[in-house]
## 1
Amino acid sequence: MPDPRGRVDLRSDTVTRPTVAMREAMAAAEVGDDGFGDDPTVRRLEAAFAELVGKDAGLFVPSGTMANQIALRALGRPGTVVLCGRRQHVVVREVAAAGTNTAVQLVTFDDDDGTVDPGELVRWQADAQQGWAPPSAIFVEDTHGEAGGRVWPLERLHEVAAIGLPVHLDGARLWNAAVASGASPAERAAPATLVTACLSKGLGAPVGSVMAASADLVALARLERKRLGGTMRQVGILAAAGLVALDRIDRLADDHVRARTLAEGAARRWPGSVDPELVDTNIVRVEIGDPAPLLAHLAAAGVLAVSGSATSVRFVTHADVDDADVERALAAIADGPEPT
Ligand SMILES: Cc1ncc(COP(=O)(O)O)c(C=O)c1O
């Protein structure tokens, strides 16, 4: 669906707008009070997600951020540490919510390539036997946003699971990981005790994330959702869009091809700024120095991006970006400013 304001919006895959089919499904949705477990459309979405990722039960939640906070409360025991990558969303992009919502401390490990070295996690566990803070869970992010949408090698996820601690998989972009790796969502989620995926990113639903795990753990997560004020009422209206979103997973392959094309254009204009071979999915991070001049240049050409850090610009492809949009962005990149 083209941008109604004629822009090429590459700021995030969260800018997608619901499709006509989603809006129709929302208008027609059968609803009930989900606080009483009485919304049939929500039940269908939760069951569909649980089946897709090979778990017993599912839970619809308002956002990926709330899913991570629920996971911290459900898996992280007070007075313990949760082990995670240094630049994961739960660490850097949730306004340090772990400190106020939970009684656990996050311990972080290098995740430059998007993954964490399982050996380092094992080492922490061994040190914990000698009096270091005890770990209660491991959080991983796949695909890893700050690393540029990198996909975890599946064997590595299994190595993390083999450590024996509960694993939360922040799969906001689990679908992208599945499509890029050729493994099914269930195969990608198999190493995880608890898994989350977002419906409101590349799949285009307006709102919502889904979690899945064993029935007991989902019952606990449901309570934590309530504690955080995330219980909703006739929310089948949103779940209906989520069900349509689940039928769109295959389309993400197009986003990945377009992201690679953008990366190639950026690498031609600024050699060394990005390695297109490392663009696994739909996120492109271009190391350019001060992002402001490039962002202003792009905006003047009707192309929106965001700073990925103090020294990078981030482009994200999604359902509302087509080949013509990529061509327009490439033209703007081709006469972009010198790096600072
Ligand atoms: C990896 C990851 N986890 C969690 C979230 C949070 O999702 P939401 O924006 O729905 O709170 C995001 C959002 O971009 C994300 O990229």
## 2
Amino acid sequence: MKIALVGYGNMGQELEKLALERNDEIVSVSFRKMTDKLDIAGVKKAEVALDFTSPEVVLKNMQAILPLGTKMVIGTTGWYDKLPAVKKMVAKYKAGLIYAKNFSVGANIFFKTVYFASKLFDKYGGYDVYGFEIHHKGKKDSPSGTAKKIAEIILSSTKEKKQLQAEKLDRKIRSDELHFASIRGGFNPGHHEVIFDSLADKIELSHSAHSRRGFAQGAFLAADFIKNNRGLFAFEDLFERGVI
Ligand SMILES: NC(=O)c1ccc[n+]([C@@H]2O[C@H](COP(=O)([O-])OP(=O)(O)OC[C@H]3O[C@@H](n4cnc5c(N)ncnc54)[C@H](OP(=O)(O)O)[C@@H]3O)[C@@H](O)[C@H]2O)c1
């Protein structure tokens, strides 16, 4: 497959390693430094462009790349309020785009585990639920896309929790608030933990990425899929379709 790397930070370089192992051809690399321009001519030659940049630039990249006919895998997080506009853009250009808050297959199975556990604890009653995430000191958005995804899952599967509270609290937490804290520091590629706590016991579910390899592997599963498909897809659609 002919691929374009859009963003050449931690994830861009991990994708490059895996592309070489898979014998994919990297026809373009954009933003080796953030002051560089998008390599339109190079991206046009690619079947799939993989964007792991930053929320400030990802929408501009979509606007420039989708009209070219190059399919897109979007790993960049922190832009999801623009999803309706992206949906229109994909339809307008009859383009193909797949995105994920977390491309790790392990993390996606963790999401299903949290959903299942959350439903059961809610049904049984007596358990409070909260969580936290840890990421490296270079991460720009907070809470992580993955934390927001986990919060959505818990809010949709419990009766009491109605809203995410990701800020520090100088008051008692309300029972309808789900507290999910973010910690930034060091080199951690991503740790997410959910705790169900009762007077009797505590259950901790966590997902820890050992490296960025799992994200890159999932991004290539997504690239293999979107190469031959048009439309807007979320990575979890690949589970529903039996691709994963
Ligand atoms: N979905 C997933 O599975 C997953 C997994 C990991 C990370 N991510 C997300 O992917 C994104 C990239 O993560 P990363 O760890 O690779 O970040 P990173 O190391 O900071 O790399 C980001 C890349 O984009 C460039 N860039 C940043 N801001 C830019 C701007 N305004 N204009 C043009 N280029 C810009 C950077 O250039 P410089 O090096 O010059 O700054 C760098 O090449 C983040 O949004 C992160 O949350 C998603």
